């Protein structure tokens, strides 16, 4: 995962425009809020990225932890939300020192594909320790076998057409194709799990999980799972 952490901590071309980036995080925030059942909830966004719309999530809960592995991204999160008393930024290592059974909802969105199976197992163990007995773990935007870059591109183009940045999307896709992202994706690879494989993997970590009827984010070909202790 280290090379992916370095990539997302750098100036990259994953987002084709500022509008795309902003809308991406707005959609994720909206979907996270949909899983918050109480304004008193403690929420953890695991490997959250830039989390530009985290303030909206924080408005819907009592405390929002933003856990991010990339130091440069963490620094930006700390600066961005310095005045928001509900938001607390942590490294992934710092989660180990949090109280057990202290979090109502954990969300890990669009992250599992960048982890080795062993790294994902370790993350599941850490998350399970943090969750309250009544808590939920939402594992979103997972890549199933057979869904490749073509479907990612199609999902982006549909999203761009809906939100009027199709021209930027087309230009951005060319820029991404010419960047180091395709080579990195080919060299390191992305982890893919079928529905049965992910439910089994979550079960081995002590979770009871089901596939959600709708994926988080704007890619309908990916999968989201909802798990609890």
Describe this structure in words.
This protein has helices at residues 2-9, 18-34, 54-59, 71-80, 117-130, 149-162, 166-177, 181-188, 195-204; strands at residues 42-46, 63-67, 87-90, 103-109, 131-142, 208-211, 223-228. By secondary structure, it is α/β, with parallel strands linked by helices. It has a 7-stranded mixed sheet with strand order 3-2-1-4-5-7-6, with helices on both faces. α6 (149-162) runs antiparallel to α7. The mean pLDDT is 90.
Topology:
Layout lengths: L1 H8 L8 H17 L7 E5 L7 H6 L3 E5 L3 H10 L6 E4 L12 E7 L7 H14 E12 L6 H14 L3 H12 L3 H8 L6 H10 L3 E4 L11 E6 L1
Parallel strand pairs: 1-2, 1-4, 2-3, 4-5
Antiparallel strand pairs: 5-7, 6-7
Could you list the spans in which at least 5 consecutive residues all have pLDDT below 50?
Answer: none
The outline comes out as: globular
Q: Could you name the CATH homologous superfamily?
A: Vaccinia Virus protein VP39
- With strands numbered from the N-terminus, the spatial order across the biggest sheet is 3-2-1-4-5-7-6
Largest sheet: 7 strands, mixed
Class by helix and strand content?
alpha/beta
Would you state the CATH class? Alpha Beta
Question: How many strand segments?
Answer: 7
Average pLDDT rating: 90
